[in-house]
Structure formats: structure tokens, C-alpha cells
Design brief:
Layout (H helix, E strand, L loop, with lengths): L23 E6 L2 E2 L3 E4 L2 E3 L1 H12 L4 E6 L5 H6 L5 E2 L7 H4 L2 E17 L15 E5 L4 H8 L5 E5 L2 H10 L5 E4 H6 L5 E3 L5 E10 L3 H16 L2 H10 L18
Parallel strand pairs: 1-5, 1-6, 8-9
Antiparallel strand pairs: 2-3, 3-4, 7-10, 7-11, 7-12
Family: Belongs to the bacterial solute-binding protein 3 family.
Organism: Actinomadura geliboluensis
GO cellular component, one term: extracellular region
Length: 257
């Protein structure tokens, strides 16, 4: 069932308009998010990498290659045909859905807060008022705190969540807030998740706008992935020791548009 997930492919194939049935499918993933997508010694590894491989093979690809994307260039990489699919902690939002077509979600994470181990003044999102919080470029997580909940934090820009966690360790910021799967990947003895989730993060698979056939095919593949046990196996593989309550049932899909 899961032995095919022994992967280590990287490549530079150019994406085309039609995805199902392609011989080579290019998947955009993060390169600096432990647990989800990280490039080590030239090889991409992580939950989203494994899911991307599974989905692409279900769509008929004989070869799956991976390219790095960032939160601030995911749409650009899709629209310039550099990648076919994006799995990169890509939360489905109404604004983003005007730019790309989303399949899924393939997992519903929950936004939480990470602080330094000795921090006692932040027990939940409301405690971020007046505190320094990192704002990762291209991410909507900070917007949920500041605009969605009206919490007045002191925002400090970061180029990525990897950069934000580095700032947290140095004391440049007091907290990092995003989906719990992202935070779990950065878990370390000197850091902790406050374990007070406050919103859902519906992680979708992005593709070029209007590719409904591909979206429906990806949704079928996601369903199969949960039904055959692969999704649960991968969640436990990458996050089983994190302490998070992992959901192994098929998520409710948004619908293709």
C-alpha cells in the first residue's frame, strides 16, 4: 500500500494545461517546513511530498517530480506552468479561490500558537494582544488573528515560517501562529505549542484556475487515499509523535470551481 512512497525525485519538467493522464506531473511543495515539506540533501521529504506523490500516481503519472514553492509565489508558479499541482500548507480561502482551482481539502488542520518553552504569558490567541508576532510572507494566518479576531499584535515580518521560528528562538518575536501541522514540524525542546486551536486550516491542492476535470480527479484520489489507509499511515508517520489529535476520516470537500 505505502511502499510506493519511497521517493526522492526532483526535476524540472514544464507543466502543461491538462493534468490527468500526464506521464510526468510536477508538484510544488515547501522546502523549509519540517514534517510537511523539506529539502534535505537534494531530496524533498514530508507529509505533503508523500501525498503529492500518491495523488500524482493516482492521476496516471509514471514519474513525479518536485519543485520548491513559497507562500508568496504559489499562484505564480502555477500560472507560469512551472508546476501542475501545489501542496504547500495552502489554506483554501475565498480570495485564493478566485486565482486558482482548489481540490480537497486533503486535511483540515487547526491554527494554534507556538511560543518559547519558558513563556507563561501566552496561553491562547487573545494573549497575543500587544505581543510581537511573526508575519510570514504570503501567509493568511496572521490576517486571521489581526483582522478576523481583531487582536492588536505587534507584527514582525518574516520571509517564511522557518524564518519566523528562527526569530522566535532569538527572541525577536514572542509567538508564531499558523496551522498546527506546520507548527508540529518545528517542535523542539525549547519551543512549545500552546494547544489552544481557534480556527480551521483547510489545506487544499492548488491547480490552474478552471481545470475542473483535474480537480474532480484529485478529489477522487484523496478519497481513495483515506479509504485505503494511506492517509492515516502518512499522518502517523510524520506527526504520530507530535501529540496532535490526528483526523483520519475523509475531509468534506469544497467543490470544484
Amino acid at each position: 500500500m505505502c511502499s510506493a512512497l519511497a521517493i526522492g525525485l526532483a526535476g524540472c519538467a514544464t507543466a502543461s494545461a491538462s493534468i490527468p493522464g500526464k506521464d510526468v506531473i510536477v508538484v510544488g511543495v515547501k522546502a523549509d517546513q519540517p514534517g510537511l515539506g523539506r529539502k534535505e540533501n537534494g531530496v524533498f521529504r514530508g507529509f505533503e511530498v508523500d501525498v503529492g506523490y500518491y495523488i500524482a500516481r493516482q492521476l496516471g503519472a509514471s514519474r513525479v517530480t518536485f519543485k520548491e514553492v513559497r507562500s508568496d509565489n504559489r499562484e505564480e508558479k502555477l500560472n507560469e506552468h512551472s508546476v501542475d499541482l501545489v501542496l504547500a500548507s495552502y489554506s483554501i480561502t475565498p480570495d485564493r479561490a478566485t486565482l486558482v482551482t482548489f481540490a480537497g481539502p486533503y486535511y483540515v488542520a487547526h491554527q494554534d500558537v507556538m511560543v518559547r518553552r519558558g513563556e507563561t504569558g501566552i496561553r491562547g490567541v487573545r494573549d497575543l494582544a500587544g505581543r510581537k508576532m511573526c508575519q510570514a510572507s504570503g501567509s493568511v494566518s496572521t490576517e486571521r488573528v489581526v483582522s478576523g479576531l481583531g487582536i492588536r499584535t505587534r507584527l514582525v515580518p518574516g520571509s517564511s515560517y522557518s524564518d519566523c521560528v528562527a526569530k522566535l528562538r532569538r527572541g525577536d518575536v514572542d509567538a508564531v501562529s499558523t496551522g498546527d501541522l506546520v507548527l508540529a514540524g518545528f517542535a523542539a525542546p525549547d519551543l512549545r505549542i500552546v494547544n489552544a486551536p481557534f480556527t480551521d486550516e483547510r489545506y487544499g491542492i492548488g491547480m490552474r484556475k478552471g481545470d475542473i476535470d483535474a480537480c474532480e480527479a484529485v478529489n477522487r484520489a484523496i478519497t481513495t487515499m483515506y479509504q485505503d489507509g494511506t492517509a492515516g499511515w502518512l499522518l502517523r508517520k510524520w506527526f504520530g509523535s507530535s501529540g496532535l489529535k490526528l483526523v483520519e476520516e475523509v475531509p468534506q470537500f469544497e467543490g470544484c470551481s
